[in-house]
FMN dependent NADH:quinone oxidoreductase
Amino acid sequence: MTTLLHLDASVRGERSLSRKLSKAFVQAWLAGDAHAQIIERDVGRNPPPFIDEAWIAAAFTAAEKRSPAQHEALRISDALIGEVERADVIVLGTPMYNYGMPAALKAWFDQIIRVNQTFTFDLARGDFPLQPTMADKTLVILTSRGEFGFAPGGVREHMNHLETHIQTCAHYLGVARSHVIAIDYQEFGDTRHQESIVAAFERVPVLAAQLIDQQGMPMCASA
C-alpha cells in the first residue's frame, strides 16, 4: 500500500491555486489507487514553530541524555519526521513567495532535517559528510507563481529559489525523484494565466497515473 504525505503551505484558503492543485493530485491518485493511505499536514494554516537555541541543544544531545524539557522541545519534530518516514510520495502544494518558500514551509524543513534522524554526519566521508537516512521517495511539487519563465531555460530561471531550494532540502528526506507542475502568470490574470491553469490541471491526472504505475500499483477500473 502506498502512503502519500499531502502538504499544503499556502496561507490562503479556498482561493489558493496551489491548494487546488495538490487536492486534485490526491484525488487523481485515489481514483487510480483507492487503497492509498493519505497523511494530511497543513503547514500554511498550522505552521510549525521556528527552531530556536533550545531546539538545537536538544537535537545535538544524545537521546538517552536528553532532559524532559529537551524531549518536549523535539516533540513536534519527532511527529513530523514520523510522517515523512511513513510516506512513499510527498505531495507538496506551495506558492512561490518572494521567489522562494513560504516561511512556514521552511520551518517545516528545519524541524525535519535533523542530525542522526533524517541524516548522519561522518567526516570519514570527506567533503560530503552528510548522508540521508531515508531513501527512494518521490516528491511532487504543485505550485502557483505570480510571474513566468521560472522553468529551466526561462527568463526568470535564475530567480527560482522555490523549487531549487525544496529539491535541495528534499534530498535529506530521502527523495530520489521529483516532479513539478506549476501555474504561472497569476499576477497578470490574463489569458496566459487561464491557459496555464488549464494546462496544469490537465497534467495532474497524467502524472498521478504515471507515478501509480511506477509504484507498481494496479489501476482501478474507473481510473
Remarks:
- The helical segments are 17-32, 53-59, 68-73, 75-86, 103-112, 163-170, 191-215.
- The longest helix spans residues 191-215.
- The domain at 3-215 is CATH 3.40.50.360 (Rossmann fold).
